[in-house]
Amino acid sequence: MATRADWLLALPLLLPLLACAATAALQSHRDLQRGITAITAVGLLLASAALVAEVISQGVIASQMGDWPAPFGITLVADLFAASMVAITALMYAATALYARGDADVLDNEALWHPLLAALALGVGGAFLAGDLFNLYVWFEVMLIASFGLIVLGGGREQLDGAVKYAMLNLLATTVFLISVGMMFGLTGTLNLADMARRIPEIENQGAVAAVAFLMLAAFGAKAAVFPLFFWLPASYHTAIAPVAAIFAALLTKVGVYALIRIVTLLLPEGHAWVAPLMWFLAAGTMVVGVLGAAAHWEIRRILSFHIISQIGYMIVGIAIATPLALAGAVLYMLHHIVVKANLFLVAGVIRRAGGTFSLATLGGLWRRDPWLGLLFAIPALSLAGIPPLSGFWAKLFVLKSGFDAGWYVLAGIALATGILTLYSMLKIWMEAFWKEVPEGTPELPPITGATRWLLLAPVAGLGLVTITIGLWTEPFAAFALAAGEQLASREAYITAVMGVIRP
Amino acid sequence: MKTSFIMNASARYVLWACVLLSLFVLLRGHNEPGGGFIGGLIGALGFVFHALARGAGATRAVLRLQPLTWAGIGLLCGILAGLPAMLLFGEPFLTQQWLGTTPIGTTVLFDLGVYLVVLGFALAFVLPFMEA
Amino acid sequence: MEFLLALLFGVLLSAAIYLLMARSLARSILGLLLLGNAANIAIIASGRVLGWAPPLVAPGANALVADASNPLPQALVLTAIVISFGLTAYVMVLSWAVWRGKGTVDTEALRVAEPRGLPAADPRDAAEAETLAADLLPTRTGAR
What we know:
The structure holds 3 protein chains of 3 kinds.
Chain A (H helix, E strand, L loop, with lengths): L3 H22 L4 H29 L2 E4 L10 E4 L1 H21 L3 H4 L2 H20 L3 H19 L5 H32 L4 H7 L6 H18 L8 H5 L5 H26 L7 H21 L4 H22 L2 H32 L10 H4 L1 H15 L5 H15 L3 H27 L14 H23 L1 H17 L1 H8 L5
Antiparallel strand pairs in A: 1-2
Helix pairs in contact in A: 1-2, 1-5, 2-3, 2-5, 3-5, 3-11, 3-14, 3-19, 5-6, 6-7, 6-11, 7-9, 8-21, 9-11, 11-13, 11-14, 12-13, 12-18, 13-14, 13-17, 13-18, 14-16, 14-17, 14-19, 14-20, 16-18, 16-19, 17-18, 17-19
Chain B lengths: L4 H24 L7 H19 L1 H8 L3 H22 L17 H26 L1
Helix pairs in contact in B: 1-2, 2-3, 2-5, 4-5
Chain C lengths: L1 H19 L4 H22 L24 H32 L20 H13 L9
Helix pairs in contact in C: 1-2, 2-3
């Protein structure tokens, strides 16, 4: 049999790939599609849990596809960071797939929903496991093609509008990434990330390395919606249907952040003094612009979209400081933010179902009508703002502590202020949608009942439970994040795992 | 849509000629220039010509299955090509396996998968255009 | 040869950026297409242009001929071409759908998702701007 590492690294990609192929081939059989998606969700959760367990016990693992030895073939690598991201991707796949079963917009387009969702999970998982720069590009494209299909699902005019901006900007960013891949290949003569990390210090012309790396950071920055390149996100995310917006908000920008962390820790470890100040500037700008944009809007999904941007800023703080503790903070923040953001977008979908609109002016009285919904909104909202004892508090604490330890007081101060403004936005949604009386002229919608209610609220409650678990039982998660941060900061384990597994 | 008599009459033959040529290119790609991607595109050209002459509905009837279904079947072929290595021979995913010393192996299946994916996707994009 | 490729890269890049800045969606798509080709040229050029013979091992031989070109960039470019083929097809279908809905591909007209008047200080103004943007679209007469 193939080794355990081969299986564990291939399964998180094989399962969604199989699901995508099977649901595409069976597109006229709705029940079969649903069954395949359900089985895949369970399988993916189990496979990724096994991957995390293996990486915790064995350290970084790698597998060479097609048995071509590194650095010539395609390598899949998982360290703690990548494995945890794969696991959280599986969780998101399961949560949105469950929610979609009760979502009317999806039920009208089910033939395409199942293969596209599987393709998205495939692309995201592949990007997390890729050990090769060109392969990373290919996974980015798989993800992009699936997201292009998903964002227009439902086919409203508003969606076409948003999709144009989303598609153009993302295509531009990936093409810039492709140019930088070509140039990095020219500089180092390799595409394998581990091999590249070994060779970069030997290159004489470090100025050229910096220029190409800057190009790469620009491409990933645009994907991650970092400060000057964020404008496509609030122009498009709020147009997608609820489960699509949830999985986009959770995963797509985070793949960009993941790539940023990989590139900065692996390829630019020392000797590039420009990285830290640049990241300082990007982090501060991203946090401030995002949170102010959110404060200015009165439509739930627009507010949430801008908050994606502001929260990305916290992760960039981790990259800027780049101590093991700061990187651990970035990892914990990503895990927390993926869960919470997906949860908030799913709740927004339920609010729309209950109140008929996303606009805060016409919403109202939801607390009286459906207190459970209010509670399920409050958990992720407070967690996003960083209220103890929820997951956001610990994630922010890690980032802030590393900021104060490193003496970056101004940046830490901006992060604190951003947290307070986040609380303001969340309270705004709470006061307007849940607390105030129903405005005159808003039609009363029938309450959501029966199986639909359970299908919509079960994933919301489940993700809320994850937030509370991370908040109350922090120790294992914090220890995990610290270990992942150490691994990212040292990079030796990553390189030996990839380069040292040439088969006899 | 108004089309010429010649186009209408030749559509069937052009379609099958294109499919034959595309299969030739697909198999030639084993050791020489050619392969699944180019083959799939040539095949798709034949179907598009058929749709131009006879309408997208007639082409869908020739295809029998939805274009995306064909793409899904192709993707399944590609995955199947990678599995024997893992399941039977204990090697990483996608390691090629050969039938003895013959040139027939999992790569042929993989290329056939690519062929079907390209054909399916190209037609899934083009046919709705012709119907609108 | 490398100089020529570098020059071509520069020309394609500047033409692409010029087209991308146009207001018409059709021109932007052409710009993206040129940018993709510029990226391919960049890969070919940075893979070092070694020779002209095709990188195929002749029957009976064990290695490439001496002046064979570098096969890896070609494989990368082939992949990139396939991907940009699919993505361009998508963007073209998308712009066609936009044109069918609105009768224009002027990017300045794409304001449904981002209405004028937003962000607004008052929630009621914001809600009004959203409904106006959705209702007052110029629709092409005769569009299905």
